[in-house]
Amino acid sequence: MKKVGDDNGNHIHSSLTEITSQEILHRLRICSTETPCQCSEETHIPLIRQTETWDCGLACLQMLLHWLRGDTVKDLEAISAGDVVVNDPLSISPGTEKAWMIKFVATKSIWTIDLVMLLQHILTCNRTDPCDEDVNTMQGNGGGNRALQSQQRCQHPPKFSYLFCSTSFLVDESYSDLKYYKDAFSSDELRVKNLFQLARNRKLPLLQTSGISLQAFVDIISKRGVVAVALLDNRILRGSAIDTASSYSGHYVLIYGISYDESDINDARMNSPDENDRSTAHDFCMAIKNPASAETVQFITPWMFENAWRAKGTDEDLIFVAKHILL
């Protein structure tokens, strides 16, 4: 294990071996002996759909926020309809929420590090009232944006922790050949490198590893109050034929549970027409919130998830988020 940074628990680690679920749970401050939650329906997350072709990651963070605050579908409907008390802390509409997120990331070419910086900003706002760290400051540009801050005040979720896991915290120049990255790669490269450096300087919770096993991932997501934003290859998620690496299509989803229900497993197998899917060897499936789908929940096989997650172009990016209940 190679460690970079100080010893306050928020440094970047690099592991040349597969990381264990116990280590990730430790970094999330979740007890590894806690009883697993074996029903995906026990984690209630309202579906928020993406409104553009590029904002699936932001939609996932919106779903995270509403889950952390305990919002229900009815809450979101009331907020959108304006049927809330003026000073209600949940009175910001999903549209307004998305607007300040877009202002924060300041790009339509979203990389996982953009989502991490946004999540860190939310966590920072959760610790200070009002928000004293705006988009320019967080991204290292200085300055202030009080209008943006005022939109974010009182939107603080309960205490939470997160951990960004990836096989690489560098910009892989070979991705410039992938159609998904090609158009914006030259402008993204320096911006993304700077964000990675900023994350290192601020000792954000990042963990570089050679890989996380499927079983370790299942163990983590099975814990109560733990979900993950995952970067997947959307062509695999859609069940599309895969011809060449150049057809990679990145897409963010929120994985919020493991289901052992037979009907859910059958649904997952129906969603995976690939003849190479050998998920009959598994007695579970993944429950996801897909911002590109109108379905409130989608079930996918372990084979589909793992192949979409480990595809070239994803770096196997995962952002684990743990919700901590304050007693």
Task: For the structure shown, list the relevant keywords.
9-stranded mixed beta sheet; 327 residues; alpha+beta
Please provide a written account of the structure.
The protein has 327 residues and is α+β, with helices and mostly antiparallel strands. The protein has one domain (2-323). The chain contains 13 helices and 9 strands. It has helices at residues 21-27, 56-69, 73-81, 94-105, 112-127, 135-138, 146-152, 179-182, 185-201, 214-221, 234-237, 262-270, 302-309; strands spanning 2-4, 12-15, 160-166, 206-209, 226-233, 250-259, 285-289, 298-300, 318-323. A 9-stranded mixed beta sheet has the order 1-2-4-3-9-5-6-7-8, sandwiched between helices. A hairpin with a 7-residue loop joins β1 (2-4) and β2. The chain is globular and about 45 Å long. The protein starts with a strand and ends with a strand. The model is unreliable at 1-10, 83-91, 128-135 and 142-154 (pLDDT under 50).
Would you identify the regions where 5 or more consecutive residues have pLDDT less than 50?
1-10, 83-91, 128-135, 142-154
State the total count of DSSP E strands.
9
CA gyration radius, whole angstroms: 19 Å
| Widest sheet, order of strands | 1-2-4-3-9-5-6-7-8
Q: How would you characterize the largest beta sheet?
A: 9 strands, mixed
Which range best describes the helical content: under 10%, 10-25%, 25-40%, 40-55%, 55-70% or over 70%? 25-40%
Number of self-contained structural domains: 1
Indicate the structural class.
alpha+beta
Strand residue content: 15-25%
Q: Give the N-to-C terminal Cα separation.
A: 35 Å
How many helices? The count is 13
Mean pLDDT: 79
For this structure, the quaternary state is single chain
Give the SSE string: EEHHHHHHHEHHEHEHEHEEHE
Shape: globular
Protein name: Guanylyl cyclase
Pfam family, one: Guanylate_cyc_2
InterPro entries: GUCD1 (IPR018616)
